[in-house]
Structure formats: C-alpha cells, structure tokens
C-alpha cells in the first residue's frame, strides 16, 4: 500500500462526520471533513467547489472538460453513521486502527474507503495523462446520505444543466464475497410509514378497565400480524400489482454466485430462513417486495410488572419495493388495508415517511459491458458476479428521474464489513483494487463515446 494513500485514508476517517447527530462536535466534523475533501480533490488535479445547502455541504469537483468525450459522474458521500453502541467498539471509532491489512473505523467501508479509491485512481490517471482523462469527470460527494439525502435531489433539480452527464458510477455497496468482483444492476426501493393506535385518553388500570376498553397494543399487534399470509407473502390487496418477473438469464447468473441460502443463514445468525420459502433466496432478497416491522412499542417498558392498559401503541414499518411497483401506491394500499382491519374502538393514525423507487438496468450492454471489462482488468482471473441488491440507494432513482441517466454500482466493501455497526472495517487490499478499477473503468467508458444526452 502506497504510504501517502494510507495517510490520506486515515486522515479522512479521523473526521467525526456523523450527519444524524446535531451535537457540535459532529457539526464541526462534517464541516472540516468537507473542507479536507475539497482540498484533497484539488491536490488530485481537479477543480473543487463546496456548495452550501440547508443541511450539510455538497462537494463537487471536475476536470478540464473536453468536447466530444463522454461525461462520467462519480457519486459518493462523506457522512457516516452514528457510532452507538460505543461500548462495543474495540478501538475509538474516529481513531483508525490498522491491523493485518484491515482498517477499523466508522465510515471506513461506508463510504470513505470506496469514494477515496476513485479519487486516488483519478489522481493517478491525471498524472499519467499529463492532466487529461479519457472522459469528462464530475465528482459529486454529499454529506447527508445517511439521513436520506434530503437536500441532494433539490440541489440537482436546481443545477441539472451543470450535472448533465452520460451516466453515474457509485461504489457504495458490498461485493458478493471476498475477492469476487461485483456489478450490481438493480436495487429495491423503499417506502416507510409509522402506524399509531390510540385508545383511552390516558393509561388505565388493566384490572378496572381491561376487557371493556380496547387495548391499543393488542389492536396494533393484530394489525401488524395481518400484513402477512402464513406462507410469508404480503397479505395487502394490490401489494404485488405490477411486480416484474425475474428473467431467465438472471436466475442462471444467480445460480453461479458464491452466496446462497447456507451463507445467508450463517451471516444472519437466525435459526432458519423465512419469507416466501418456495422461492430461491436471491429472488427473495432482490426481486420480491417485502413488508418489514422495524419497531413496535407501547405500554410499560420498565423493570418488573405494571398492570396498565396503555393509551397508545406505535409501529414503524418499511416496505422494500421492486421494479414495477410505485411507492405512493403501495403506501396507499397498506393504509387502506390497515383501516379496513382497525376496529372503531380505537383511533388509527398513519404517517407516511421517506420513499424511493426500485431501480434496474442492463449489466450486459453499453456501460454495463464496459464495467465488466474494467472489472476483469482490476480483478484478473476472477468470475464477475452480476447481482441486484436488497437495499435501497434513493439517489439512484433521482439520477434517472432528474438527469435521465443510469447508474453503475461497483461495490468494493465486503459483506461482513460491519457498515452501520460497531467495528466497521475496510481492507487496504480493497482500496488498492478500487484504484485499479477506476483506472480501468474510465478508459472503457471513454471508448464508448457519448456526449451528454438530453436531460429528460
């Protein structure tokens, strides 16, 4: 590992750039991180700008654009997840620890290591090309991805002409397995809601009122249970409307992957897998929509017993969506289902939350084919895994909606990197592989040509 590259990585990781916490130390960490990042992009040979938003700054950098070359936008984020629970970290989360080629720190995998690999790759390319690249390049690195990117889409809408491009590259997802180059061509969408059930005006004595006054926790438990059939499918009428089937070539590719039901079970720590068990595990994870209960609470939560009939109960729900579904329609269908099931003895409040649509593109033509060529160069002798991802990156849908372009998802972190968990890790070998990938990818994309298509 190049010593200066390691120094850059450790410095980048030292900033406590937590976007979800408004504590002064984190606000300062976000500010200083964005400024350091702009300086590092300038040192790489690019022209950086820091754009203030109502939230955290967006860092943009460009090379000297040349007519006739395709324009590639590389997206990443410098904000990181909170560190809680701090007691489970083996080392302070913002004091990077290097051992056996593995860097442990918050943000090492998500997303500082992955975006830094692209920056370092571009720097090497500019040096070897005497300040020129085979593409026109835009870096777009935000500071609010971990809180849903509330200001990025409005920023793009306001400056869409400045970000006209031929396509987007993102490295913010895992490889399917260690050492296996992975091209992700699809993401599930997401739609969130909070469901609240209100009963009596205040908590009541369960002996004096129980049996005659409806218990909101019991009602909510029934409502949540009504979301699923016994076979694991979602019971909401209309939930599967428009769901697109999996193509035969996808099933063939997924069957080759070095990750299946046994590996998923081991990684999860669950006693057995669930869901729609008549379907393959890849289809369940990537190509089927789900209804998930993220939190369920109400009533007494303290030590011991308290004979209370609670006044209210709450559930936080998210629905993972697939191509062919519409988030607004899904939320409307779920709300209609819940209201049809709720008794008149309680008051039901449904509050919609964040949403993003599913995404899929071709991994075998155009930019997808170019990405596969670059992966073969960066990972010689390795079979390329073509995957979808069960999670969501809402900005990918925004790039298609606002800029009219597709996105390549080229993950560099490992499945067990502990992103969003204590002791997040990123191998230095993957940082080096990411540099090689960037060096190979830009010439492959440049060879395709292009010229900033009309924004739709």
Characterize the structure shown:
The structure is a single chain. With about 450 residues, this protein is an alpha+beta fold. It has two domains: about 5-185 and about 360-450, 3-Layer(aba) Sandwich (Aminopeptidase); about 190-245 and about 280-355, 2-Layer Sandwich (Alpha-Beta Plaits). Helix content is about 35%, strand content about 20%. The strands form five sheets. Strands 1-2-6-3-7-17 form a six-stranded mixed β-sheet, with helices on both faces. Strands 11-13-9-14 form a four-stranded antiparallel β-sheet. Strands 4-5-18 form a three-stranded antiparallel β-sheet. β1 and β2 form a beta hairpin. The two termini are about 45 Å apart.
Low-pLDDT stretches are: none
The CATH superfamily of the largest domain is identified as: Zn peptidases
Q: In angstroms, what is the radius of gyration?
A: 24 Å
CATH architectural group of the largest domain: 3-Layer(aba) Sandwich
The top-level CATH class of the largest domain is Alpha Beta
Number of helices: 13
Domain count, please report it. Answer: 2
**Coarse structural class:** alpha+beta
Distance between the termini: 43 Å
Helix content: 25-40%
The proportion of strand residues reads: 15-25%
Give the overall shape, derived from the CA principal axes: globular
Strand order of the largest sheet: 1-2-6-3-7-17
How many β-strands, per DSSP? 18
Would you give the CATH topology of the largest domain? Aminopeptidase
What do the pLDDT scores average to? 96
Short description:
The chain is α+β, with helices and mostly antiparallel strands and 456 residues long. It has helices at 3-13, 24-43, 108-128, 152-158, 206-209, 216-225, 248-255, 261-268, 281-286, 327-341, 367-378, 394-403, 428-448, and strands spanning 47-51, 58-62, 71-77, 97-99, 102-104, 136-142, 167-170, 182-187, 189-198, 204-205, 290-298, 308-309, 312-321, 347-356, 359-360, 385-389, 407-409, 425-427.
